Amino acid sequence: MRAFRNLADADFEPPVTGLVLIGPNGHGKTSLLEALLYLEVFRSFRGARDRDLVRFGEDGFRVEVETDGRTVAAGYDARTKEKRVTMGGLPVPRMADALGVVRGVVFSPSDSQLATGGARVRRGFLDVLLALVVPGYVAALGEYRRALRHRCRATADDVADWEALLARSGAKVAAARRAWAERWAPRYREYCAEIGEPLEARLCHASRETGDEAELARALERSRDRDLVRGTTSVGPHRDDLRLLLGGRELGVYGSAGQWRTAALALRLAAADTLAAKGGDAIGGGTGAGGDSRAGASASDPPVICLDDAFAELDAGRSARLGRLVEGLAARGSQVFATVPREGELPAAVSGLPRWTIREGRIEAA
Predict the structure, then answer these.
(1) CA dist., res. 82 & res. 5, Å (int)
(2) 155 by DSSP, 3-state: which?
C-alpha cells in the first residue's frame, strides 16, 4: 500500500481470522478498509474520487493484495488521471476482468441510507453486488448506460437504433436484478427478524415494466416524442428500485432509525450470503446477463467482512444479535476486520480477534 489517503506506506499480512483495528477517529481506520476493498470493484466504497484518495503531496497511489495465490493491484496517477490494474503483475485487458478477486461486505452506521436514500442508492448497492456474481452484468450495464446517454440526444434517424440497444441490454440488467430480489427476499426477511424486528419485512424489485425486451422496446417507442423534447428517458431499469416494506408500509417513510439500521444490516448480510453462494445460486438458478466471465464470477469463498464501527448506535439487543450473526459468518470462513475507537468499546463478537492499533496512519500489531 503506497500513498493511499493518510495511511503510512506499509506491507503487512493480517491474520487469517482477521483483526480488530483500534485507534482514535481520523487516524485511518476506515481508510484501511477502503484500501483493502478498493480492489473489489476498483473504486472507493465511500464514493470518493480516485484523486481524493491520493495522500497530500503525492502523485498517485497504489494498493496490492495477494489472496488464494492470486495477486491483484491497482494504481492511480493523479498527473495523467489514469488507473492501471494488474493481475499477477500483468495488465488486464479490461478492468472488469479483475472484478471479484477481492470480495467483501462493509457494515457501517452510514448504511441507514440504504433504507432512507433514494432509489439510486439501492440500485447502486445492487449493481455493485451483481457485478461480482453475474457474468456479463458489467458489460450489459455499461451498454445500457451508453445507449441511455446517446438516446437523450439522438436524432430521428438513429434513435431507433439506440432504443434497440437499450431494450436488449436493459432486459438483461432488469432480469438479473429481479432474479436477485426473488432469490434473497426470504433471507432478507429472516435476517430482519433475527436482528429483532417484530414486523414483517419485505424486499422486492420494483419496475414499471416487466423487463421483457419486447415490452421495454415498445415502452421506449411510446415515450419517444415526449422524451426527445425533454432530453431524457422516462422508462427503463434506470428508474427501478429495490423496494423495502415493513408491516406493509414504505420503510423509508414510516420506519424508525432502529428499523432503518435493521434493514440495512439485513441487506448487507444478504449481500455476504450472495457472495458466498456457489455459481448460479447467487441469484437463483443461474440467471445471468450473458457474455463474458470474470476472475471472481464463479468464486465461492466466503467474503471478507468489514465492520466499520458497525455496532455504534445499535441498542443492546440488536448489537448482540448482529454479533451472533457475524460470529456465524466467521465460523463459515469469512475473514473479519473490525474497527473501534477504544479498547473498551470492543464488541463481544470480535473480542477474540487479534488486536492491531493505528495512530496517525501507522498500523502496528499489538
Answers:
(1) 17
(2) coil
Total residue length of the chain: 366
C-alpha 137/C-alpha 47 separation (Å) is 21
The span from the CA of 52 to the CA of 94, in Å, is 23
Q: How far is CA 47 from CA 42, 53, 89, 184, in A?
A: 11, 10, 27, 25
pTM above 0.90, yes or no: yes
Burial status of residue 182 (CB atoms within 10 A of its CB: 0-12, 13-18, 19 or more): middle
How, if at all, do strands 304-308 and 336-340 pair? parallel
Integer CA distances (angstroms), 175 to 185, 191, 205, 244, 365, in order: 15, 24, 10, 19, 46
Cβ atoms within 10 Å of 305's Cβ, excluding its own: 23
Residue 236 cell numbers, joined: 427503463
What is the layout of strands, in order, in the sheet containing 241-246? 201-206, 241-246, 249-250
Number of H helices, E strands in the chain: 10, 13
Cell numbers describing residue 192: 430482519
Helix (H, G, I), strand (E, B), or coil: what is residue 23?
A: coil
Neighbours of 355 (CB within 10 A): 15
DSSP string of 184-200?
HHHHHHHHHHHHT--SP
Distance between CA 94 and CA 326 in Å, rounded? Answer: 34
Q: Are 147 and 159 in contact (CB under 8 A)?
A: no
Give residue 299's pLDDT. Answer: 44
Phi, psi (rounded to 5 degrees) for 67: -145, 135
Residues 192-241: tens digit of each pLDDT: 999 999 999 999 999 988 778 999 999 999 999 999 889 999 999 999 99
Backbone angles phi, psi at 332, to 5 degrees: -90, 5
What digits encode the pLDDT tens for the residues 8-64? 999 999 999 999 999 999 999 999 999 999 999 999 999 999 999 999 999 999 999
Q: Which H or E element spans position 66?
A: strand 60-67
238: closest CA among 167, 158, 188? 167
Contact 115, 263 (CB under 8 A): yes
Q: Residue 7 and residue 266: Cα distance in Å, rounded? A: 31
Question: What residue has cell string 495488465?
Answer: 91
